[in-house]
Amino acid sequence: MSDISIRNVGRAGRITLNRPKALNALTYEMCLAIEAALDQWRDDEAVALVVIDAEGDRAFCSGGDIAELYERGRAGDFAYGQKFWADEYRLNYKIFSYPKPFVSFLQEFTMGGGVGIGCHGSHRIVGETSQIAMPECGIGLVPDVGGSLLLALAPGRLGEYLGITAVRMDADDAIFAGFADHFILQDQWPDIIKSLEETGVADAITAAEKSPPNGTLRDQQAQIDALFAGEALSDVLTDLRNDDSDFAADALKKLQRNAPLSMACTIEMLHRLRGPSLTMEKALDLEYRFTYRATEHGDFLEGIRAAIIDKDRTPQWQFAGTDVPTAAVGKMLQPLGKNALNLKDTGMKNLTIGFIGLGNMGAPMAANLAKAGHKLRGYDVAGTTAEGVEAVADIEAAAKGADVVITMLPNGSILRQVAAQAIAHMAQGALFIDCSTVDVESARNTSQAAENAGILAVDAPVSGGIGGASGGTLTFMAGGTEAAFAKAKPLFDIMGQKAVHCGDAGAGQAAKICNNMILGATMIATCEAFALADKLGLDRERMFDVVSTSSGYSWSMNAYCPAPGVGPKSPADNGYTPGFAAELMLKDLGLSQQAAEVVDADTPMGALALELYKRFVDEEDGKGRDFSAMLPRFEKRSRNG
To answer: Considering 512, 569, 623, 636, which one is annotated as catalytic?
Structure first.
């Protein structure tokens, strides 16, 4: 069963969150699916409005699914979270500025990421069970997904109070604070939704609206304004400690659970946002400055560990028991420069893309493009296909009339043959992207053939393996003109987390060859070290704890550890089922030495790595195993073989 249901019903575009056992927590894939649907419905005259609701009676959406963010961050992969938040914030902005009515039904818990998709539309409906909150400071973040805008607009100092205490609002409180618009008894919701679907107008909402039971915030307003008006977190804490009311004592107790750095930054954000210049763009930009740095420099990983992973509820926060320095707040909220949040549409929606080569890497890459709203035509000599991709009979059918053709092929010889056929059927001004790992000369030959036909070309081999292809977290190393790279970049952003323009045609392949020569050599060294540690009687977990935080740090150790049961999950924990097959490493090392010979470069470590992987694949049991399966090879060997 899918995590989300997106369909057209009558005059309505319908979205239903469908993870009730997970309190409808929002995954990255769900964010992308909602965005793609909104883009499609924006100009569809048959869709008059959008309705979003959720399955189950425990939550509309309890927040974002943060387990993956934690695992990636713990492995040193900060770019994944940065991409997740950037894409999520773009969705929040689209909901906030959507030109058609956007109606949300918010039962039970609506928190964090749920606020981002449920509290920015034109009609926000709450009922008897609704509980809305921004609890991010409790996990080392700040109120985000546009929540800082709502907090800054809330009456008086409600924003500071709600933002740093994570107090839950009932229906009346949510309406008073500006997080909701209409109270309707929940047994009437199915009829309201049916009317919206049938008519495409929101009249039924107003007709069914009632006054909610009294909440608490209206009566507490004066006290909140007096106690949460300080310029900094330290001022608020002082005012609360000097007040002997039960309300102040309860607020202090709530604050003691949360990250001091997050609370201090929340207060600073709200102070910066308030005023006539307040916009959603400004709020999201400020939020992203914090979340961009949260995994590496903030308390996010510790907050998740204490709340979700170990569940010991005893986080070791930065600045616990002390005032948060102004400099620390400034560091988290300083502008990001070239990494600043970009909310603009790319203009690369609803493209027709021909994808040639739907193997273990190509298929999930194509599927991610299809999920993002593009029309995919796919061809593979083996007859394989991918989710959301139309299978076609040959290269011509994939390339003819396509805005973009993407290839993922085994070697340079095949690339040259396929490119020649595809380019012959592409229109001038179209884009050819090759994501294969091939020799530099084949990449340059293909680029020149495209240029001669008036077609933009990019050679963009990838790093990240099958997991990265499936998760949309690949790194692209791109070669080609500035114009070609700029046109390809929005597609790289869908399929991956990072794209680097390395230079002219062939530079992408050169970067990939150099990168994987390093990877092959460091994996061998990592496996050798574990085998040596075993024979020295050193516990593997303790070795990992030392090396992963000292000068032996590497991707092979920290993110892709070859020792089963040590560090983050890797192919070693699955019997060395390939994430990146040993024979592919052998191929890449061969390309590196071929390139080194052409330019007369001395690469003895690369040559030795090639020799070892050739023996491992051709003469031992390496074929069909992950390249990290070098470890059991070394475990069984002595110095003399």
So the answer is: 512
